[in-house]
Design goal:
alpha/beta, 21% strand, 7-stranded mixed beta sheet, globular, 9-stranded mixed beta sheet
């Protein structure tokens, strides 16, 4: 695969990114690294030259030095044009690879259907907030921070559009890929650390202005007249309101005036329907509440017993599909209630009347068909329990009666037995004072670890 990086005054990020890449468990001789520098004025280029010898283990290492800043999309196009591998991987330089990032990504690609054109990697410590389908893992667009694409697909759609200097070029690229009939798959097991924000909702001047103006370009290309007017009204509103950073009004006026000369470049690609485009307010997809929950990767993974309670309320196989996508590596599967065909899942029958002590796992959770679970459900809840002595952890998802749901809560087995000696699994469902029990369960700030199906 070809691995593409774009740098511009990126000296502080290079060592962390490249050292982690060189420590990868991936066979680096299969990797061709292309780094394109957008006219850096700091120590970026000398540092990139120093790494030339360290990348001798790779298939190739090419450094492309530009005399001007082309922006993110156009620079990626130039670098990608130098490669020939069937898979092209675009990764921001302000990232850090986990040891298994590329090997897991390769396996995801290998086992994907040919109609998958893009694979989006998961970002740590803040996951990208847009929703994805927890069953199929399909998503409507891919963040440009870390993703892989089939070269044939990339070349078919013409790569990134240079109209977008920075930000929103990934949205436009994704929409054009989907408009050609390909799907985008989120790969939560292939994760990468991205130092995108130093704090939640941090304001970056370039991102602030470019995101607003590039949103206008997307609306001119794909949106209705009403959506185009909404985009322009947004600019005017930002100009009239209090500045989000010093000089924001001046910067936005500059970008807004410049954009009028580029509107003619926003023509919709010939022969394309634009049906993949989606505007949700000023986002391009519905947003997962709580996606900015700070995540830590667990060093060890104590086992959790997950009990699938089949009440025949709906298709159990939809639930099974999203459970198979769980990123937590140490899950033992059990089932209670009506038997069912679990296909390739190894299931053990469990009588719910049995005491909790019957299982020797440090954690357990009971799930049923009422909810679908995002891939990081158990990982996030268990990681939140590491430094707590409470009974368990839950998200803020609620059922039909708007009360917290028992399904999907991760319980600490030993703590629950101390709280109520001899308690069985069915006792949990018949608990008369659920409110008292929930006072001993932490609720993390991550509202959509699961979706209520009904």
């Amino acid at each position: 695969m070809d691995l593409i990086f774009v740098t511009h005054n990126s000296e502080k990020w290079i060592s962390r990114c490249f050292d982690s890449l060189l420590s990868s468990d991936y066979r680096l001789e299969k990797l061709n690294v292309f780094v394109i520098d957008n006219a850096s004025s700091d120590g970026t280029v000398p540092l990139l030259e120093q790494y030339r010898n360290r990348f001798f283990c790779c298939g190739s290492y090419q450094l492309l030095l530009e005399d001007k800043n082309h922006g993110f999309g156009r620079a990626n196009n130039i670098a990608a044009g130098s490669g020939h591998s069937e898979i092209v991987v675009f990764v921001n330089i302000d990232t850090e690879f986990f040891s298994d990032t590329l090997s897991v990504l390769e396996q995801e690609i290998k086992h994907s259907h040919r109609n998958i054109g893009i694979w989006e990697m998961r970002q740590f410590p803040y996951e990208h907030p847009k929703i994805y389908d927890p069953v199929t893992l399909e998503t409507s667009w891919s963040s440009g921070a870390a993703f892989a694409v089939r070269r044939a697909v990339y070349e078919h759609v013409g790569g990134f559009d240079a109209l977008f200097f920075m930000y929103a070029e990934d949205v436009d690229f994704s929409w054009r890929v989907r408009d050609c009939g390909y799907k985008i798959r989120y790969t939560p097991r292939a994760s990468i650390r991205h130092y995108t924000y130093s704090s939640v909702n941090e304001i970056k001047p370039l991102q602030y202005c470019c995101s607003i103006i590039n949103d206008l370009y997307l609306r001119y290309r794909y949106g209705s007249l009403r959506q185009q007017l909404m985009g322009n009204c947004r600019v005017i509103s930002r100009l009239l309101h209090r500045e989000v950073y010093k000089g924001a009004r001046r910067d936005l006026i500059k970008y807004y005036l410049e954009h009028f000369g580029r509107i003619r470049l926003c023509r919709h690609p010939a022969g394309k329907s634009g049906n993949a485009a989606k505007f949700v307010g000023f986002e391009y997809e519905d947003v997962r509440l709580g996606a900015f929950y700070f995540r830590k990767r667990l060093i060890t993974a104590p086992s959790i017993a997950v009990i699938i309670k089949n009440d025949l309320l709906s298709d159990i196989h939809i639930l099974l599909s999203c459970l198979k996508n769980q990123t937590y590596p140490s899950i033992k599967w059990y089932f209670a209630g009506h038997p069912f065909d679990a296909e390739d899942m190894e299931l053990t029958y469990l009588d719910l009347e049995a005491p909790i002590s019957a299982l020797g796992d440090p954690y357990f959770s009971i799930v049923d068909e009422q909810f679908l679970y995002y891939a990081d459900h158990f990982e996030t809840l268990i990681s939140s329990l590491v430094n707590h002595s409470c009974l368990g952890a839950r998200d803020n998802c609620r059922g039909a009666d708007q009360t917290p749901a028992l399904s999907g809560i991760v319980f600490r087995s030993a703590a629950l037995q101390s709280y109520n000696k001899g308690i069985s699994f069915s006792d949990l469902y018949e608990c008369k004072d659920m409110e008292k029990l929930f006072r001993h369960i932490i609720c993390i700030d991550a509202e959509t670890r699961r979706i209520w199906r009904h």
